[in-house]
Structure formats: structure tokens, C-alpha cells
Amino acid sequence: MNTAVEKGIKTDSEASSKLSKFFSFKIGILPIGVYLFVLAVLIALLSKKLLPNDMLGALTVMVLFGFTCAEFGRRIPIIKNIGGTVIMATFLPSYLVFAKILPKQAITSVSKFMEDTNFLYVFIAFIVVGSILSMNRQVLIRAFLRMFIPLIVGTLAATAVGVGIGVLLGIGAYKTFFFIVVPIMAGGVGEGALPLSMGYSSILGLKQDALFATILPCVMMGSLTAIILSGILRNIAEKYPKYTGNGSLVKSNSDDEVLKIAKEGNKAKENMKIDLSQMASTGILAFALYMSGSFIQSLIGLPAPIVMLLIVVLAKAAGLVPKSIENGAASLFRFTVTVITVPLLFGVGVAKTPWQNLVDVFTNPKYIIVIISTVVTIVVVGWFVGKKMNMYPVEAAMVTACHSGQGGTGDVAILTAGNRLELMPFAQVSTRLGGAATVTIAIMLLRMLHG
User: Fold this and answer.
1) Is the residue at 2 inside a domain?
2) CB 345 within 8 A of CB 66
3) Is residue 23 a part of any domain in this protein?
4) Quick check: 200 and 179 in contact, CB under 8 A?
5) Is residue 221 part of a domain?
């Protein structure tokens, strides 16, 4: 009798243990119980065509499907080691839209949300403010002074290599430079491809939308290449720790005190308890900084994210940031990276990444060779020049890789693939300033040729 009771207790204990293990499993940040409940609710809403076209409906879709796509990327062999979570979270949704697998209501809800809100710029504001204000001040100053040289040298080398290969493949220097290489380094879609196509249209007398459709695939393919290379750099960092600063850009060299402070600061941030009032205050500050950037943009034309970036950097460098805001910035950064990144990438894949445009480039081997060669050159030059500049090669290469990314979206994807979102401030300089300079120079050169 006692034996039977003991067996029954043991069986119940094993069943309870298995059930507990099952419910402890997570898909992204969602425990499986929460995931299944949200899935059931979403299926019910979609079946009755009741999914709202507002923030609640869109975010429900973005969170659920975003973390599902990322989970696939995290588990697929080989792909998981080259930024699989980012690739799947961004490009799988694009295919699902193209193949009409994703419900139309879900597409409409997400697309409307992404188009009607500044969700991407909210993310960038949180990442930039959170990462800069929580950084070590001395390391920040050194990094910004050093990063421009790898970026400039990488841009010049990549242009030479890309155009040279385009000529060898019979594409021609003119077409390669203006319609492949420049779009890759133009700073994304809204800040790069769009103003570039408008400038080209006014000079060449061609339709802007046709030019935009020609340019956009190169932007996307360049960004995808940079994402994959960033994932490879992450693997190199894991296998060869001597090449990485684990998110720090500049080596401290003989300045052991600076290195010690930076390490202590990173450890303190990991152990820091989240103070909601401090985090909220920093978030509100981020909104105000972005809006101030928008105001200044209306006066002088400098992109709002860059204005915001410069203000934050100057305030941090001058030592004007209170300790409470620095602590709130660290919490804000952790929250943004953990909670917002993957849903945002899914929204970008649905609303801003046309699958057919990607296919058009994928099926043209000459274009692929030029694009890959251009981006690889940027990354390789960033590695070696960064190393010469006493920077960590992995981080220097990732920052320069962002120059070939799809704007703010590309920065997010590239740095997430490399697990280095701490580098977002430097990536923004690489993308925004580098992109703005590229677009300006390209339009000037085209005007000179057709003047």
C-alpha cells in the first residue's frame, strides 16, 4: 500500500515537474503560457475580422509574430550564427506578406501603425539617449574623436572597389557608382534613397518613383550583407576575445584607470535595480531631445536624430548629466533592447521591406557581386584602420558596417545581429552623417556631369 502511494506521489511529482518545465519555456520574452493565450486571442480576433487598426492591434501582432520569427532564426543551424534572429525577424515577415500567408488584417494594422507613428524614431531616441548617457564619459570622448577616420577611409576604399568591380563586370563606372555604390552608403530609405532619387529625378528628368524602385533593392541588399557580416563578427568576438571590447569601441591603452572605471560601470549597470521614475524621466528627456532636433532640422536642415545625438554627446562630454538620469538611461537602454527591438524589426519587415525588390537584386548576380564587395570592403577596412587607431577591431568594423545599412532600421538590425546595440550612437553618426555626405556629394557630381 505504501509502495503504491509512493509511486503515485512520484508520478504526480514528475508530471508537475514536466508541467513546470513546459511553462518555464519562453519564446522571446514571452513565457509559453502567455504566448499561447495571446495567440488564441489573436486568432479569435482575426477569424471574426475584429483586429483593431490601432496601436493595440498592431503591437499585439508585432510582439507575437516578431518573437516567433526571431525564435526560428535563433534555432536554424548556420543561420543562427550570422544574425539569424534579425534576418528572420526582418525578412521573413516581408516574404509572408508577399506570399499572402500573413492575414491581411494583420498587415493592415501593422502597416498603418508603422506609417502613422514615429515608432522607429522613438526606438532610436531611447537607444541613443540610453546608451550615451549611461556610457563612461572618458571612453565616449575618445571614441567620437577616433571613429571618423575608419569611416572616411572605409568609404573611399569601398567606392573604389565597388566601382572597379562594376567596370570589370561590364556594368560601367557611371551606373555602378550612382545606382549601386552610392545607394548602399546613402543612409537608408527615408534619409538616403528617397532624397537621392528626388535629386536624380530633377537632374536627369526621369520619374522619381522609377528611380526609387531602382535604388531601393541595392539599399536592402547592402543592409542584409552588413547584417550577415555583423553576425560573423560576433562569432569572431566569441572565439577570439582579444579582438573585441564587448561593446566598447576604444582601447584605454596605458590608461588603466579609465579601463577600470569603464569595467566597474558596466558591472554596476548589470546589477542595477530598475528605478521606474528615473527611467521614465530619461524617456521623457529622450522625447524632448528628439523634438528639439526636429525644430533645429527645420532651421538648418540637419537630420533630427543627428541633432539629438550631438546635443546628448555634448551634454555628456561636458559633465552636465545628473547621476539619476545616467541611472535611468541604463535602465531605459536595457528595456528598449529587451522588449522593443524584435517587434520593431517585424514591423519594418511588414511595412517597409518589399520582398519583390529583394528578389530583383537577388536574381542579378552582377549586382550581388558589386554590393557584397562594397560592403565587405567597408567592414574589412574598418577592422584594420580601427585596429591601427587603437580601437577594438570587431566594434570598429561593426560601426563602419552601419554606413551600408538601411538607415535607422539597418543600424538596429546590424548591431542586434552583432549583439552590440551599445554602439548605436556611433552607428547613427556613421549612417546619418556618412549618408548625408554621400547623398550630397553624389548629387553634386551628377549635376556637374549633366550640367
Assistant:
1) no
2) yes
3) no
4) no
5) yes
The answer to whether 245 and 397 are in contact (CB under 8 A) is no
Contacts of 81 (CB under 8 A, 6+ apart): 231, 232, 235
Question: Which grid coordinates are listed for 19?
Answer: 508541467
Determine, yes or no, domain membership for 9.
no
At CB < 8 A and 24+ separation, what contacts does 40-45 make? none
Q: How many domains does the chain contain in total?
A: 1
Is a pLDDT exceeding 50 seen at residue 183?
yes
Q: What is the pTM of this model?
A: 0.71
* pLDDT tens for each residue of 362-415: 788 999 999 999 999 999 999 999 888 888 899 999 999 998 887 767 888 898
Provide the residue range defining the domain that includes 172: 51-449
What phi-psi label fits residue 255: left (phi over 0), alpha (psi between -120 and 50 degrees) or beta?
Answer: beta
C-alpha cell at 242: 582579444
Amino acid at site 259: L
Q: What is the CA radius of gyration of the chain?
A: 23
Note whether 57 and 51 are within 8 A (CB): yes
pLDDT > 70: what percent of the chain? 85
